[in-house]
């Protein structure tokens, strides 16, 4: 086997020359460039993907240092997407990188998430925005990989992937499911597949107590505990990075397998107002 691109020759020796060419022709969006998304973006770039769109409105802050790839002393206060975009361009100068310093919400979805995208990696930690993104992609037949909660965990070996409707022990994924069912007509039947791969962990969450110790019971904290810069769940790179790497793996697998072929992308561009979800693709039974 030979390839004219020494930068990604190792990728070609794993996925084949045709697989690498599909990756070079692909457009992947990473929504949320934090503890999970920054690592997913790095992996996608190092697999030779030709076009990457990064979405996040946050700046790099010092408290990101425990889990986010772009958090360095020299980058504190800078836009996450700009820092990450420059890094990806250094990895692959031939990659077209779009750095969008904004959040993807129901109001901005039509502008940012477009049918030419081969895959979207959802690394958002907001339930409503996450559900809106999943529903948007499903209705437009855009491949999406979603991620559950990565905070409050220390064991990356417990991370796995299954259909979003089959996850367990993941509060974030559970809330997203409830929102999809309530607001977007997704099926309440537990045996129905949403055809949305979800990266999640089966690990029991570790809750911080006011005295600085850790417990495995939620009763010590309020209902609003989450992964953020001010407090809430703790997080370590070993877990958040693994979430991102697994999500990137699923995206690469779909692209190499040709899940969305060029003819399908052209059709999607010509149909900006697709019909509602068909039976069996997340609709109510």
TrEMBL record:
Region Disordered: which residues?
A: 261-285
One GO biological process term is: cyclic threonylcarbamoyladenosine biosynthetic process
Q: Looking at the Swiss-Prot or TrEMBL record, what is one Pfam family this protein matches? A: ThiF
Q: Where in the cell is it found?
A: Membrane
For the keyword Iron, the answer is no
Q: How does it sit in the membrane?
A: Single-pass membrane protein
Q: Matching InterPro entries, A to Z?
A: ThiF/MoeB/HesA (IPR045886), ThiF_NAD_FAD-bd (IPR000594), Ubiquitin-activating_enz (IPR035985)
Q: Which GO terms describe its cellular component?
A: membrane
Compositional bias, Basic and acidic residues, is annotated for 261-272
Keyword tags: ATP-binding, Ligase, Membrane, Nucleotide-binding, Transmembrane, Transmembrane helix
* GO MF entries: ATP binding; tRNA threonylcarbamoyladenosine dehydratase; ubiquitin-like modifier activating enzyme activity
Top-rank taxon of the source lineage equals Bacteria
**Residues in domain THIF-type NAD/FAD binding fold?**
14-255
What family is this?
A: Belongs to the HesA/MoeB/ThiF family.
The molecule here is called tRNA threonylcarbamoyladenosine dehydratase
């Amino acid at each position: 086997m030979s390839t004219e691109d020494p930068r990604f020759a190792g990728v070609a020796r794993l996925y084949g020359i045709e697989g690498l060419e599909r990756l070079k022709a692909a457009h992947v969006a990473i929504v949320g460039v934090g503890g999970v998304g920054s690592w997913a973006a790095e992996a996608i770039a190092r697999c030779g993907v030709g076009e990457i769109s990064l979405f996040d409105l946050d700046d790099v802050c010092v408290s990101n240092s425990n889990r986010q790839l772009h958090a360095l002393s020299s980058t504190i206060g800078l836009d996450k997407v700009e820092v990450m975009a420059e890094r990806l361009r250094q990895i692959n100068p031939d990659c077209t990188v779009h750095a969008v310093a904004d959040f993807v919400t129901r109001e901005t979805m039509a502008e940012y998430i477009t049918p030419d995208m081969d895959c979207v990696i959802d690394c958002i930690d907001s339930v409503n925005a996450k559900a809106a993104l999943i529903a948007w992609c499903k209705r437009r037949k855009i491949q999406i990989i979603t991620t559950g909660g990565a905070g409050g965990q220390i064991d990356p070996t417990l991370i796995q992937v299954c259909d979003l409707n089959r996850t367990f022990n993941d509060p974030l994924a559970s809330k997203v499911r409830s929102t999809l069912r309530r607001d977007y007509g997704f099926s309440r039947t537990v045996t129905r597949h949403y055809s949305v791969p979800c990266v999640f962990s089966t690990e029991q969450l570790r809750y911080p107590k006011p005295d600085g110790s850790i417990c495995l019971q939620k009763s010590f904290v309020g209902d609003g505990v989450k992964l953020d810069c001010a407090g809430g769940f703790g997080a370590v790179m070993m877990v958040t990075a693994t979430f991102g790497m697994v999500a990137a793996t699923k995206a690469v697998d779909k692209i190499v397998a040709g899940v969305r072929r060029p003819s399908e992308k052209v059709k999607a561009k010509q149909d900006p107002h697709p019909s509602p979800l068909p039976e069996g693709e997340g609709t109510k039974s």
